[in-house]
Recover the amino acids of this structure.
């Protein structure tokens, strides 16, 4: 009796193990929704649609970009968290909604580590420090000197309290020991519009959003926030060339709801990497100010954890509070 039962259990286990790879192999068999937690037209949306177009070609099924802006990305994130963990709902996560918002909110509606299954880091991009053309500073050192000579006289625009632009500027202030006044807006577009008009003097914004205005000469680019100069603006120095070890990166990656089967996560990672490696893809992202990546789920998960810890410290240092 016992031997027979053991044989039956062993056979059942063998069947279940054999079936595991087929979960990933059969996936996907229908269109996939990619939730983008911001309105159309911004950097995250541009990235999602660029990747989605290639991913559609790779998997043979439509990638439907679903823009769900609101609450600084928290609305879209909450929708993704509560979606079925079957691989047919993906979430374009970023430093804002996977590292900053959760540590900023007193009662966050989701946990970026517990509630998401990391799939892959898609891209990173640097922030661009730009000033209105009326500002006399022509370089980062000159801007720092100006801010120190007139504490509180300069102001900077952000996409809102607790936005990635707010965090980037506060990190800059902390690293340079300057007093520059924060002027929050309801989004990056009105913030940049007022900076161009001279209502505010400076902004640390995403590269895709800033490039058209820099190229047209409407604003002056002073520095980028990475360790290396941005290929798309090679003549613009890094802030780190003047401020030791300064680095702030914006990043985006694909996650799925927690409990999504590992074979499906791995399959989607492979498909995304294939999309990023398609001819012309790296160049398409570079033109928009992105550096493509494609690291595995574990690597992306480690990045999320480390960034959550980093921004939790920044919230305390800068005294940033949710609106």
């Amino acid at each position: 009796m016992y031997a027979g039962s053991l044989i039956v259990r062993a056979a059942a286990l063998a069947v279940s193990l054999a079936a595991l790879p087929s979960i990933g192999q059969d996936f996907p068999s229908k269109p996939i929704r990619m939730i983008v937690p911001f309105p159309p037209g911004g950097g995250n949306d541009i990235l999602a649609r660029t990747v989605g177009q290639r991913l559609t070609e790779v998997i043979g099924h439509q990638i439907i970009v679903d823009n769900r802006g609101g609450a600084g990305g928290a609305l879209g994130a909450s929708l993704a968290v509560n979606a079925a963990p079957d691989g047919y709902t993906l979430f374009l996560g970023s430093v804002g909604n996977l590292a900053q918002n959760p540590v900023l909110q007193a009662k966050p509606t989701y946990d970026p580590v517990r509630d998401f299954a990391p799939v892959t880091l898609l891209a990173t991009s640097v922030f661009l420090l730009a000033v209105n053309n009326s500002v006399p500073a022509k370089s980062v050192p000159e801007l720092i000197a100006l801010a120190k000579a007139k504490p509180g006289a300069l102001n900077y625009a952000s996409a809102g309290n607790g936005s990635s632009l707010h965090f980037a500027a506060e990190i800059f202030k902390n690293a340079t020991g300057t007093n520059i006044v924060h002027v929050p807006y309801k989004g990056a577009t009105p913030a940049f519009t007022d900076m161009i008009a001279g209502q505010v003097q400076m902004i640390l914004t995403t590269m895709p959003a800033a490039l058209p205005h820099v190229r047209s000469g409407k604003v002056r680019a002073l520095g980028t926030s990475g360790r290396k100069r941005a290929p798309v603006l090679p003549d613009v120095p890094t802030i780190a060339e003047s401020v030791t070890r300064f680095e702030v990166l914006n990043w985006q990656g694909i996650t799925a709801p927690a409990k999504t089967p590992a074979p499906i996560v791995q399959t989607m990672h492979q498909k995304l990497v294939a999309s990023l490696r398609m001819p012309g893809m790296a160049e398409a992202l570079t033109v928009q100010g992105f550096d493509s990546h494609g690291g595995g789920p574990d690597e992306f998960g480690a990045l999320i954890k480390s960034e959550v810890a980093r921004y939790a410290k920044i919230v305390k240092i800068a005294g940033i509070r949710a609106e």
